[in-house]
Amino acid sequence: MRVSILGAGPAGLYLAMLLRKADRRHEITVIERNPPDATFGWGVVFSEETLGALRDADLQTYVEITDTFARWDTVDIRYRGELLRCRGHTFSAIARKRLLAILQQRCRELGVELRFGVEVAEPSTLGGDLIVAADGVNSVTRRALGTGLRSTVEPQGCKYVWFGTDLVFDAFTFIFKDTEFGLFQVHAYPFDEHTSTFIVECPEPVWRRAGLDRCDEAQSIAFCERLFADELAGHRLMSNRSIWLSFLRVSNATWHHGNVVLLGDAAHTAHFSIGSGTKLAMEDSIALANALVGHRDLEDALVEYELERTPAVERVQQAADESAGYFGRVGHHTNLEPLQFAFNLLTRSGRISHGNLSLRDPGFMAELDGWFAGGAAIAQPPMFAPLDVGGLTVRNRVVRPVAAPAGAGLALTDLVAVSAEGRVSPQTWTLCDDADVESLRRQVKRAHDAGSLLAVRLGHAGRRGATRPPAHGVDLPLPAGESWPLLSASALPYGPRSATPKAMDAADLRRVCEAFVEAAGRAGDAGCDVLELDFAHGYLLASFLSPLTNRRDDEYGGEHRSRFPLEVLQAVREVWSRPLVARLTITDWARNGLSVDDGVELARRIAAAGADLIDVQAGQSVPDGQPEYRRGYLTSLSDRVRSEARVPTLNGGVRVKIPAGASPGTKIRLRGRGYPKSARSEESGDLYAKLEVTVPPKLSAKERELFEELAKVSKFDPRKQA
Fold first, then answer.
1. Are 636 and 322 in contact (CB under 8 A)?
2. How many other β-carbons are positioned within 10 Å of the β-carbon of residue 441?
3. Burial class (CB in 10 A: 0-12, 13-18, 19+), 449
4. Which stretches of the chain drop beneath a pLDDT of 50?
5. What CATH number does the domain containing 442 carry?
6. Of 241, 336, 363, 510, most Cβ neighbours within 10 A?
7. Could you tell me the pTM of the whole model?
8. By C-alpha distance, which of 424, 429, 426 is closest to 475?
9. 79, 183: one domain
10. CA 462: distance to chain centroid?
11. Nearest to 525, CA basis, from 473, 578, 571, 478
C-alpha cells in the first residue's frame, strides 16, 4: 500500500513507523513543510496509561523515549502566598524536539521516506492509496475537504502563551497571581534536566486590560518575568515563537472522506490544561495502524478506526472542556480557602474525585477533610458533614426519595401539585385539602422516624400536565375524556401530541399564585421542614423563564420573563419562614433557549428574592432539546451556580449500575456522588441527591433490525447508541 502522510509531528511519524514496521512492502512518505529540527512548543507530557500503549506498539522507541523522561508524582499549587502539595499524580515529560528526533530516526531505520521543507497547497495532488492528514490544528487537508467532514473549529478558554524557562521545577506547578488587571495563572512542569515548560494564561478581558494585546514577543516575556519574578527566582523565560494565542477546539462529525483520513490535532484537539494532545495523537496512530493491518478493505479499516477512537476522544474532550471552562472562570473561586481551592482545581475536569484523591494522597485528603469538619483531627467524608441551610441544620448532605429516607439528611418528595389542574398525571400527589395535609403529615413522621428532615416539592405541571402515568411512557396525553385544561406562559403545546395550553391571563396568574401560597401553608401545617418550588423541566413556572416557551409581549414576557416566578417565590416566602429551595433549570440545552449564563443570572435573582438553596437541573424545557448527559453532568453547572451566584446548591449528578437480569420496569436506585466545594457556612454548601429510574424495555427485533439498517447507510453505530 502507498501511503502519503502530511505532517511530521508525533502522530504522522509514529503512524509511518508502525505501518512500515508491520509490512516492509508498504511505501510510506511523510511530507512536512518545516525543517526536521524545527518545532514549536517545549515539553510533551505522557501518562502511565499512554506509556503502556507505546511500549506495546514499539518497544525500541518506548525505551528511547522513556530513557530521557523527566518524571514526577506531585502537583504543587501556589495560591494566596501558600504552597499546597498533592502527591500520587504520576506523569512523565520529554522535550518535543527530542521526541521528534527519536521518531524521525526510527522512521529512517525502517525505510520511511521523510521529505522536509515541502509545502503542499492542494492535498488532492498527493499520490497513494491512502492520504493521512496529520497536519495539525490548522489542517490544510481538513479545510480542503470542505463540509464533507462537518468540522467545528472554535476558540476555547483563555488567552495563553507558551514559554520555556531554565528554572527546573520538581513538580507539576500551578501558580495563581492576582493583579490590578485580574487573575493570571501558570501551568509549569519540567521536561529535562535543564528546562521546564511555563504556560501563562488569563481571560481575554484581563489580557486586554494588561495591554498584552499590544505587546510584541519581547515585551510579553518582560511582562511575565516581572509578574512572576518571585516564582522564577532569578531564572529567565525563553521564547520559541511564543506569542499569545487562543486555543482552538477541533472536532469532526466524521474523520475520513474517500481515501483521506484525519489524524491527531487535524481530527480533534483537547485543551492543554489536561495535557492530552500528544497522547491522543499517538494513540490515534496506534489505532489506525492496527485497523489497516486488520482489514483488506480500506473503508472497513477507516470505519473501525473511527469507531474505536471517537468514544475515547469524546471522553477526553469532555474532561478538557470542563478544565478549560474552569480556568476561564477561576477568578470566581478566589474566595475559597487554599485547601478548598486546591481540591476544586484538582477535581476540575471530573476525572478525579474525592475517593480517587484519597487513594493518591491520603495525607492531603485527611488534612482537607479535617479542615472541612472545622479542624477535627479525624473527620468523616464531607458528604456526611452537617450543613446549615436557612437556619436549619441538615445532619448530612445526602438527599433520598421520601419512600426510602433511611440515612439521608433530607428526604425529598416527588412533585406535589398545588391544585388538581396542576397535576402531571392522575397519580400526582396534591396538597389542596385537609386529607392531603394528613397524608403528607404521615410522610413527615416517616422521614423523622428515619432521622431525616422532609422537603416537599411544590409545583404545577403546566403544559406538561394531563399525561398518562410514567409507566405508560413520557408525556403521553390522557384520553380526551380523562384530561383537564392546561395552563402555560404561552399557548404552545409541549410535544406533537400534547394538548395546547391556555396562555395565562391576569386571573390565572392570581389564582395560581394563591394556590402556591395556600399549599405552602398546608406544608407547614403538615410539619414539613423544607419547601422546594419547582422552576424546572418545562413545568408551569419554568415555562415563564425560557424564551422557547414564553412568547408573551406583556409585562410577563421578554426581559421580564422571570417576573411571575419571582412573584410566586416572594409570596410563598411571606408565609414560609423555614428553608426554601428553588428547583431551577440552568440551561435548556436547546438552540435559542436559556444558556448557562442566563441560568446563573436567574439563580442570582431567585436567591436575592428569598431562596436559600438552588436545586440545579438542566434540559426538558422542550422535547427536542440536545441533552449532554454524562457522568456528573450537573456537577459543573452546580459549581458555576455556587461560585458565581454565591448560593448553595443541591446537585443530583448520579451514576447507574443496572443489576444483571433486571427486567423492564425494574426500579433502580441511583446514588449521587460528589464533594462539597463551597465554604462551611449557611451561605455555601452542597446537597447530593439519590434518585430512582426505570429500566427501559429492551429493543424489539424490529428496532434492532432498524438500527442495523441505519448503521449500513449512515455509519450510525448501535453500540455507541447503547
1. yes
2. 16
3. exposed
4. 654-685, 689-699, 702-703, 706-707, 710-722
5. 3.20.20.70
6. 336
7. 0.84
8. 424
9. yes
10. 30
11. 578
Residues 447 and 322 in one domain: no
SS3 624: coil
Q: Are residues 264 and 399 in the same domain?
A: no
Place of cell 477507516: 302
Helices (H) and strands (E) in the chain, counts: 21, 31
Residues 6 or more apart from 496 whose CB is under 8 A from it?
Answer: none
Which residues, in sequence order, are CB contacts of 553 under 8 Å at separation 6+? none
Question: Could you give the count of Cα atoms lying within 13 Å of 14 in the half-sphere of its Cβ?
Answer: 30
Same domain, 470 and 614: yes
Q: In whole angstroms, give the CA distance from residue 205 to residue 368.
A: 33
Question: Which pLDDT belongs to residue 275?
Answer: 83
Residue 493: all three cell numbers together: 403545546
**Structural domain span for residue 509:** 387-697
Length of the chain: 722
* Rounded distance between C-alpha atoms, residue 385 and residue 393, angstroms: 10
Give residue 695's pLDDT: 36
| Pair 87, 192 in one domain | yes
Dihedral, CA atoms, 722, 668, 319, 583, nearest 10 degrees?
120
Q: d(Cα 473, Cα 86) in Å, to the nearest integer?
A: 48
Rounded to whole angstroms, the Cα distance separating 371 from 679 reads 11
CA distance 697 to 296: 38
Instruction: Select from 569, 584, 578, 575 the least CA-distant residue to 647.
Output: 584
Is 368 among the domain residues? no
- The greatest distance separating any two alpha carbons of the chain, rounded to the nearest whole angstrom, comes to 87
Q: Which of 620, 641, 622, 628 minimizes the C-alpha distance to 687?
A: 641
Start-to-end C-alpha separation, the chain: 35
Q: How do residues 130-187 score in pLDDT, each as one tens digit?
A: 999 999 999 999 999 888 899 999 999 999 999 999 999 999 999 999 999 999 999 9
pLDDT tens digit string along 279-326?
999 999 999 999 999 999 999 999 999 999 999 999 999 999 999 999
What is the rounded distance in angstroms from the CA atom of residue 115 to the CA atom of residue 417?
72
Distances from the Cα of 207 to the Cα of 70, 185, 272, 330, angstroms: 32, 12, 19, 15
CATH of the domain at 259: 3.50.50.60
The DSSP bridge partners found for residue 229 are none
pLDDT at 722: 34
What does DSSP say about strands 392-394 and 387-389: parallel, antiparallel, or unpaired?
antiparallel
Cβ neighbours for 428, distance < 8 A, ≥ 6 positions apart = 414, 415, 416, 417, 461
Sequence-distant (6+) residues with CB within 8 A of 258 are: none
Q: Indicate whether 136 and 227 sit together in one domain.
A: yes
Grid cell in block for residue 26: 508498504
Strand 237-238 vs strand 245-252: parallel, antiparallel, or unpaired?
A: unpaired
Strand-pair category, 613-617 with 649-651? parallel
Q: Which are the catalytic amino acids?
A: 539
Beta-strand (E) ranges in 537-638?
580-585, 613-617
Residues 197 and 310 in one domain: yes
Written as one letter, the residue type at 89 is H
DSSP code for 681: B
Cell numbers standing for residue 377: 483531627
Amino acid at 579: P
Query: Do 136 and 159 touch, CB atoms closer than 8 A?
Result: no
Which of 328, 352, 378 is where one domain is finished?
328
> 68, 61 in Cβ contact below 8 A?
no
Domain membership flag for residue 333 = no
Q: Is residue 356 part of a domain?
A: no
The Cα–Cα gap between 407 and 398 comes to 8
Residue 403 shares a structural domain with residue 320: no
The DSSP H or E segment spanning 91 is strand 82-95
Sort strands 530-535 and 580-585 into parallel, antiparallel or unpaired: parallel
Number of domains in the chain: 2
**Position 529: which residue type?**
D
**707 inside domain:** no
What kind and span of H or E run contains 133? strand 130-133
